Amino acid sequence: MLNMKKKLIAAVMLSMMTVLSPMAGSAQAAEGSSLQAAQTQEQLLPFRSAKIDHNITRIKDMTGDMIYLVEGKDKAALIDTGIGVGSLKTYVEKLTNKPLVVILTHGHVDHASGTAEFAEVYMSGKDKELFKEHTAFASRTGYIGGTNPQWAATVNTSDYRAEDNADRFKDLKAGMTFDLGGVHLDIYDVPGHTQGMKAVLLRENRALITGDGANMFTFLFGKETLGLSSYEKSLRKLQQETAGKYDKVYCSHGSGDLTVDYLARLIEDCQQIKAGKDDKVPFEFMGQKANIAYEIGPDHNRLDGGIGNIVYAPERVNE
Ligand SMILES: [Zn+2]
Ligand SMILES: [Zn+2]
């Protein structure tokens, strides 16, 4: 049990490190320090937000994980719920009074931990077990502690939203459409980062939310992930299904904005890895070996100037 717990925390730390890497450096430090200053002044207000389109608000939680609020004429959708510290519901009710539906892109700790406050939640059934493990208090405290130990010390137990039971969730499946009133959200599969990973196309906004499914530092390492070849197939399928339907790509970490050709770039990365032409930067964790595809500098950007990186298990490249 202890070993399992240790492993889980370690996995969380690894996940966090990889996903946060693109924001490392001065920008992240600046963001962190301003967040801490805000905390000192206003007690616990662990959300910040900015409008990125007339009906889309990007909300960041205390660890920088991104949540998207999308509004139609009749309803609003919350895509992901962050780390589950502080009341996201209260925060969102200040932004909209429309009835809310929650759509989880996947079951990881930094996306799915704030569901307990919401009545209607959709998530892929394939991520149920992962959800249970990842949204437990121990995972959340481990994740926050790893992100910012000083901040973690200011969080009280009462600030954590309750643990939730995924059995009450509705199954999120590819092909589903959420009609918010003049605004349609179309659901697509993109398994790889997790088995149940979904992408959301905001049809009228012509924007694709890839979550962690296609990220700046896509994490493809751990028991919940697919092998690299299967991931490449997922990307190709998503690319084909959504071709011509979007002009913007939003993800869940870093700046949150990806290039419009990002799926193609990641597919190219997969091909380079399969051909053995990537940098294969060794990465060892808990006795398991992984590779970072492209060498990064101190600012965590790719040394070759390219955009996009994958951390993958070398023994699972052909899987
Ligand atoms: Zn994730
Ligand atoms: Zn994430």
Which helices and strands, and how do they pair?
Layout: H1 2-20, H2 26-42, E1 47-53, E2 56-61, E3 66-71, E4 76-79, H3 88-95, E5 100-103, H4 109-112, E6 121-123, H5 128-134, H6 137-147, H7 149-154, E7 170-171, E8 177-179, E9 184-189, E10 198-202, E11 207-211, E12 218-220, H8 228-242, E13 248-251, E14 257-258, H9 262-274, E15 281-285, E16 288-292, E17 310-312
Parallel strand pairs: 4-5, 5-6, 6-7, 11-13, 12-17
Antiparallel strand pairs: 1-2, 2-3, 3-4, 8-9, 9-10, 10-11, 13-14, 15-16, 16-17
Helix pairs in contact: 1-6, 8-9
Bound molecules: zinc ion (ZN) (2 copies).
Summary?
The protein has 319 residues and is of the alpha/beta class.
Descriptive account of the structure:
The chain has 9 helices and 17 strands. The protein has 319 residues and is of the alpha/beta class. It has a single domain, classed as 4-Layer Sandwich (Metallo-beta-lactamase, Chain A). It has a 7-stranded mixed sheet with strand order 1-2-3-4-5-6-7, covered by helices on one side. The chain has a 6-stranded mixed sheet with strand order 8-9-10-11-13-14, with helices on one face. Strands 12-17-16-15 form a 4-stranded mixed sheet, with helices on both faces. A hairpin with a 2-residue loop joins strand 1 (47-53) and strand 2 (56-61). Helix 1 (2-20) packs across helix 6 (137-147) and helix 8 packs antiparallel against helix 9 (262-274). The chain is globular and about 50 Å long. The protein starts with a helix and ends in a 7-residue tail after the last strand. Residues 1-44 have low confidence and may be disordered. The chain binds zinc ion (2 copies).
